[in-house]
Amino acid sequence: MPEVTTKKNEQVANMIFSSIYPHYLNRIEKNGRTQEELNQVMKWFTGYDSNKLQEFIDGK
Q: Rounded CA gap, 24 and 42, in Å?
């Protein structure tokens, strides 16, 4: 497993959510989960509602 560094943390923090989301979705679907489950977790973590989460997914 790669070492976690300040530089890596900054790179991840600067990534656009809409570019990361498909990777999350692909990973969870490989593990037998659904997009709805991913979105529910994202809503728990962020506090955003479905509309706001969709805006981020769409890259707005």
A: 11
